[in-house]
């Protein structure tokens, strides 16, 4: 089977661990959730591979900001790390001649999708009773994550 014919098998992807590394919300005492005029969101995403152990680390960071009608502000910073065990990683992630990992079968898209949607649920619970209560990460094309690496 050539790399072009590799088919992603979702049942072979397992989340083995996740950690909320950073969970920070700051707002002024006068900030009014009821008077929020909108939110701004930025995010980044990285994948790291341990091919021998069939492990992938996915890092998701996001920053949220909001202003209310009185120009009071709130800011949130979040960093969540997921560890995936992928039974057939050797078929989906191959080291090329330049020692870069080439992904096949839609693996990058699948990991971005799982990471983002699971992070959405985590943040929904973490943002309750904060200046961002009611905020939900918007639905996006997961390929956007693959184009937004976390800058170190």
Describe this entry's structure for a reader:
The chain has 152 residues and is α+β, with helices and mostly antiparallel strands. The chain has a single domain (11-146), classed as Bacterial Protein-export protein SecB (Roll), CATH 3.10.420.10. The chain is 18% helix and 42% strand. The chain contains three helices and six strands, in the order E-E-E-E-H-E-E-H-H. It has helices spanning 89-92, 107-126, 143-146, and strands at 13-27, 36-50, 55-68, 73-86, 93-95, 101-103. The protein has a four-stranded antiparallel β-sheet with strand order 1-4-3-2, with helices on one face. A two-stranded antiparallel sheet has the order 5-6. Strand 2 (36-50) and strand 3 form a beta hairpin. The longest helix has 20 residues, at 107-126. The protein is elongated, with a radius of gyration of 18 Å. The mean pLDDT is 93.
């Amino acid at each position: 089977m050539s790399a072009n014919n590799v088919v992603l098998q979702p049942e072979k992807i397992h989340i083995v661990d996740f950690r909320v590394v950073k969970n920070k919300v700051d707002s002024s005492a006068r900030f009014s959730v009821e008077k929020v005029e909108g939110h701004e969101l930025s995010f980044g995403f990285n994948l790291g591979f341990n091919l021998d152990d069939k492990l992938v680390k996915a890092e998701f960071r996001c920053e949220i900001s909001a202003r209310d009608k009185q120009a009071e502000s709130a800011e949130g910073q979040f960093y969540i790390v997921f560890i995936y065990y992928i039974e057939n990683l050797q078929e989906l992630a191959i080291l090329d001649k330049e020692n870069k990992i080439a992904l096949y079968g839609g693996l990058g898209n699948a990991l971005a999708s799982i990471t983002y949607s699971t992070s959405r649920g985590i943040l929904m619970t973490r943002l309750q009773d904060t200046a961002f209560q009611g905020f939900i990460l918007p639905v996006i094309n997961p390929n956007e994550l693959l184009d937004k690496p976390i800058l170190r």
